[in-house]
Write a structure and sequence with these properties.
- The chain folds into two domains: 63 residues, 434 Repressor (Amino-terminal Domain); 185 residues, Endonuclease, Chain A (2-Layer Sandwich), CATH 3.30.870.
- The chain is of the alpha/beta class.
- A hairpin with a 2-residue loop joins β5 and β6.
- The longest helix is centred in the C-terminal third of the chain and has 17 residues.
- α5 crosses α8.
- The model has no long low-confidence stretch (mean pLDDT 94).
- A six-stranded mixed β-sheet has the order 3-2-1-4-5-6, sandwiched between helices.
- It contains twelve helices and six strands.
């Protein structure tokens, strides 16, 4: 951006005036102290007549806002042709509302600064482009009933999250299933996991706990993940039954 600004004959204050941001914000972005928001990038694109150069880099900027342990997997996820996940404790990040995601980051231990909370929230919401980007990816989510009932944030946050899930269920490339609390033993009790297929048709797994993430490449291990996921799909409520359960939760509040 600094190169494009100088090519346009502008100083930082003039660029800030042109895009509606302060001198300090422009300087922070140029010096890499603050990742640019999408709105800032779009405004700078217009003001500097950048020809799409800045917008082409926005994906990299958004990934820089993610927690460090997750960035490697995010590269695979962004171009996935299919992604299947099981989440026993929380609504998965790809399906979270802004209020739900912000409540999670606000409760982080040790505490995060407001700026980091903002960055992580923005990055999580940016990942959700996978739900609707072309070509469509095949997406499947199995969420435990306990995760849905977990009171993250206040009642309005939780209710808004349930309503958002009902909207996501209507997307033709997305399937949401709920694992009922009364199911008893099942193959997901060892914890959450993701099975993903890249555009090169490579199959990967991903597991995460206590801010340690691991991309699994070994074919035998990824195959085991796939077998477990198939078993979980057969044990969970189907899509229609899952939507009805979520509707009941909304009606109870």
């Amino acid at each position: 951006m600094q190169y494009l600004r100088k090519r346009a004959g502008l100083n930082q204050q003039q660029l800030g005036d042109a895009v509606g941001y302060s001198l300090e914000q422009v300087a922070s972005v140029e010096q890499g102290r603050r990742p640019a928001k999408a709105a800032f990038t779009a405004a700078a694109e217009r003001a500097l007549e950048a020809g799409g150069v800045l917008e082409a880099l926005q994906g990299e900027v958004d990934r820089a806002k993610l927690p460090r342990f997750f960035r490697n997997f995010a590269l695979f996820e962004a171009d996935a042709v299919s992604r299947f996940s099981y989440d026993p404790l929380l609504v998965p990040g790809l399906l979270q509302t802004e209020a739900y995601a912000r409540a999670l980051f606000a409760g982080h231990c040790p505490p995060l600064s407001e700026e980091i909370i903002d960055q992580h929230t923005e990055a999580r919401l940016s990942r959700q482009k996978l739900l609707t980007r072309a070509p469509l990816a095949e997406l499947s989510f199995i969420i435990s009933e306990e995760a849905l009932r977990n009171p993250v944030g206040d009642a309005a946050v939780v209710r808004g999250q349930w309503q958002h899930l009902l909207g996501v269920c209507a997307l033709r490339n997305v399937e949401v299933q709920v694992m009922p609390a009364a199911c008893g033993f099942h193959s997901g009790l060892n914890g959450p996991f993701v099975v993903l297929e890249t555009k090169e048709h490579q199959h990967l797994g991903y597991i995460e706990s206590q801010e340690v993430g691991c991309v699994v490449h070994d074919p035998a291990e990824v195959s085991a993940f796939g077998l477990r996921y198939g078993k979980l799909r057969s044990q969970a409520l189907n899509g229609v039954e899952s939507a009805r359960l979520i509707e009941r939760l909304v009606g109870e509040t």
